[in-house]
Design brief:
Strands 1-3-4-2-5-6-7 form a seven-stranded mixed beta sheet, sandwiched between helices. It has one domain: Rossmann fold, CATH 3.40.50.300. The protein is of the alpha/beta class. It is built from five helices and seven strands, in the order ββαββαβαβαβα. Bound molecules: guanosine-5'-diphosphate.
Length: about 200
C-alpha cells in the first residue's frame, strides 16, 4: 500500500469526542519513549506527523490521523512513565478502557516493544489486558538497528516464551527500525490485507 495522504484530524482527551466510527482504524501504543512517533512518521513517510509526547506530565491525548481518506491511524497515549502521578495513571486507564470499549471500527492495535529490553511487566500486563478484552493485536519490536541479529533473536525468544505462558497462540510480530526504515512494507501490507478482508 502506498501512503498517498496523511493528515492530522483531531486530538482528544475524551473518547466520546473522537471522530465517528465510520472508517476502519489501526491504533499504536507502547511505553513512553518506545519510538512510537518515529514509527508513525516512518510508516506515513512524513517528517513530523506524530510529535513525541515523552515529557512526563504532558497532557496525554488520543490523536487521529486520516490516511488515504480511507482509514484512521490512531496514536494512543503511552504507558510506563516513571514519574507520573496516581491521578494521571487513573485518567489514562479510564481513557484507554473507554477507547477499547467504544471504537467498534478498530481493526488492530499495534503494541510497540523496545527490542533492546528484556520483557517488561508493563508491556506484558498491557498485552494481557487487551487479550482479556478480545482486542486484535500485533506486536512491533522497535529500534532493531541498535541490536545484533543474535540479540534480537534472544529478546524475541524471551518475549514469546513469556507470552506463551498465557496465550495459546502468538499474535503477528513485526520487527522495525524507524532509523533504517525496516519493517515498513510488512506493516503496510498487513494493514492493507486487513482492510481488504473486511470489505
Ligand atoms: P515516543 O515517545 O514513543 O513517541 O518515541 P520517539 O519516537 O520520540 O523516540 C524516542 C527516542 O528513541 C528518540 O530519541 C528517537 O530518536 C529514538 N528512536 C526512535 N526510533 C528509533 C529507531 O528505530 N532507531 C533508533 N536508533 N532510535 C530510535
Amino acid at each position: 500500500m502506498d501512503i498517498l495522504q496523511a493528515e492530522f484530524v483531531i486530538s482528544n482527551t475524551e473518547v466520546s469526542k473522537c471522530p465517528q466510527t465510520d472508517k476502519p482504524e489501526f491504533a499504536f501504543i507502547g511505553r513512553s519513549n518506545v519510538g512510537k512517533s518515529s514509527l508513525i512518521n516512518m510508516l506515513t513517510n512524513r517528517k513530523d506527523l506524530a510529535k513525541t509526547s515523552s515529557t512526563p506530565g504532558k497532557t496525554q491525548t488520543i490523536n487521529h490521523f486520516m490516511i488515504n481518506k480511507a482509514w484512521y491511524l490512531v496514536d494512543l497515549p503511552g504507558y510506563g512513565y516513571a514519574q507520573v502521578s496516581k491521578s494521571n495513571r487513573e485518567n489514562w486507564s479510564h481513557m484507554i478502557d473507554e477507547y477499547f470499549k467504544l471504537r467498534d471500527n478498530l481493526y488492530c492495535t499495534f503494541i510497540l516493544i523496545d527490542a533492546r529490553l528484556e520483557p517488561q511487566a508493563s508491556d506484558i500486563n498491557f498485552i494481557n489486558r487487551l487479550g482479556q478484552l478480545e482486542i486484535p493485536i500485533a506486536l512491533v519490536f522497535t529500534k532493531i538497528d541498535k541490536l545484533k541479529q543474535s540479540e534480537l533473536a534472544k529478546t524475541r525468544n524471551q518475549f514469546e516464551k513469556e507470552l506463551l505462558k498465557t496465550w495459546a497462540e502468538l499474535p503477528p510480530i513485526f520487527v522495525t527500525s524507524a532509523e533504517k526504515k525496516t519493517g515498513r512494507n510488512p506493516m503496510l501490507n498487513f494493514i492493507e490485507t486487513a482492510l481488504k478482508a473486511r470489505n
